[in-house]
Automatic annotation (TrEMBL):
Pfam families: MR_MLE_C, MR_MLE_N. GO terms for biological process: carbohydrate catabolic process. The keyword Metal-binding applies. Residues 147-243 form the Mandelate racemase/muconate lactonizing enzyme C-terminal domain. Keywords: Magnesium, Metal-binding. It comes from the Bacteria. This is Mandelate racemase/muconate lactonizing enzyme family protein. GO terms for molecular function: hydro-lyase activity; magnesium ion binding. InterPro entries: Enolase-like_C_sf, Enolase-like_N, Enolase_C-like, Mandelate_racemase_C, Mandelate_racemase_N_dom, RHMD-like.
Length: 368
């Protein structure tokens, strides 16, 4: 029995490596709440989640005052039981991002602890379906960039072995098409181009744009509508010649079920932090598999690489390097493919010194 003896909570703040602007927001900073869980044998599991600049202190408070104290004395191996107990404990604040992000940090730490005790890497403990995952890059596709900058980044990405890139959309439709056409002409037909609207459109506008994007052989149109408008996504999917991708702003496995049952999407982009951790992430991935739908998760590539390798229907991994400043070694990339670590645990090589440098003063708490 891996009895939990104490829980450490703290938050790190990181600035983005490049300016990140999309159709509705700018990524100003990444608040990264961390949870470290120690068992009676001294084995430690580390988990984390993130925000894009707001809500981090609320997550830390929820962890400190409510969720972490409930872990003390629990058997860390009973991950499913703990997840449901904590979810029911916070039923008045679910379904929603703050609770999901707090649950995720705990759940990920428990999975890290389990893998370390078993001396297995996460990608094998969770399934072991694939050895590597193809990468596409988002870092050079932000909305504020000029067509020349988009082309330059896409050409460099292709030369580096990447197999695709993502371009943010949300400018007037003719501008968006011109930007996409410039990239398509530069990289050729064999290179994937994905688009991301960040929930900026209404149904009629999304249908119109999807038809315009079709001529450029776009891989998917991501988050075209508000994430809670499932019926709108149904209408769009029925009329769109471009696959519709959703998931980064969906916080419940049941909501993914509704999307899939109603034929409201063609690509699932479930985010391990925003869905509430590895436990529900795996459920959503296997649910999508039953509908013959691919999983292409949003952000957090350092953790998602192992989860993608664990399941058979993961098709793409999104390249946005954000945690490099907190690790000794980065994710292994060869010929445009990402490989999960074979080290026990999550496979993230944390640098304690770097974490201490970036830790937000006053955010550290230890619960016993």
């Amino acid at each position: 029995m891996a009895t939990i003896t104490h829980v450490e909570i703290f938050m790190v703040e990181l600035k983005p490596k490049v300016k990140r602007v999309d159709a509705i927001q700018s990524f100003d900073c990444q608040e990264t709440p961390f949870v470290r869980i120690t068992d009676a044998d001294g084995v430690v599991g580390t988990g984390y989640s993130y925000t894009i600049g707001t809500g981090g202190p609320a997550i830390i408070s929820l962890l400190e005052r409510t969720l972490a104290p409930a872990l003390i004395g629990k058997d860390a191996e009973r991950i499913e039981s703990i997840w449901h107990e904590l979810s029911f404990m916070t039923h008045a604040t679910t379904v929603g991002p703050l609770t999901a992000l707090a649950l995720a940090a705990i759940d990920i730490a428990l999975w890290d602890l389990r893998c370390r005790r078993a001396r297995l890497p996460l990608h094998l403990m969770a399934g072991g379906a694939q050895q590597s995952i193809p990468l596409y890059t988002t870092e050079g596709g932000w909305l504020h960039l000029s067509p020349a900058a988009l082309v330059d980044d896409a050409v460099k990405a292709k030369a580096s072995g990447f197999q695709g890139c993502k371009i943010k959309v949300g400018r007037p439709v003719n501008e968006d098409v011109a930007r996409l056409r410039a990239v398509r002409e530069a990289v050729g037909e064999s290179f994937e181009i994905f688009t991301d609207a960040n929930q900026a459109f209404r149904v009629d506008e999304a249908i119109r744009r999807a038809r315009r994007y079709e001529e450029l052989d776009i891989g998917w149109l991501e988050e075209p509508l508000p994430a809670d408008d499932i019926s709108g996504h149904v209408r769009l999917s029925q009329h769109s010649p471009v696959p519709i991708a959703i998931g980064e702003s969906v916080y419940s496995a049941l909501h993914f079920r509704e999307y899939l049952q109603q034929g409201a999407c063609s690509v699932v982009q479930v985010d391990v932090a925003r869905i509430g951790g590895i436990t529900p992430w795996l459920k959503v991935a296997h649910l999508a598999e039953c509908f013959n739908v691919p999983v292409c998760p949003h952000f957090l590539m350092e953790l998602h690489v192992s989860l993608c390798a664990a399941v058979p229907n993961a098709r793409w991994l999104e390249y946005i390097p954000q945690l490099d400043d907190l690790t000794h070694t980065g994710m292994r990339i060869e010929n445009g493919r990402a490989f999960p670590s074979d080290q026990p645990g999550l496979g993230i090589d944390w640098s304690q010194r770097a974490i201490d440098v970036h830790c937000v003063p006053g955010s550290r708490h230890v619960i016993r």
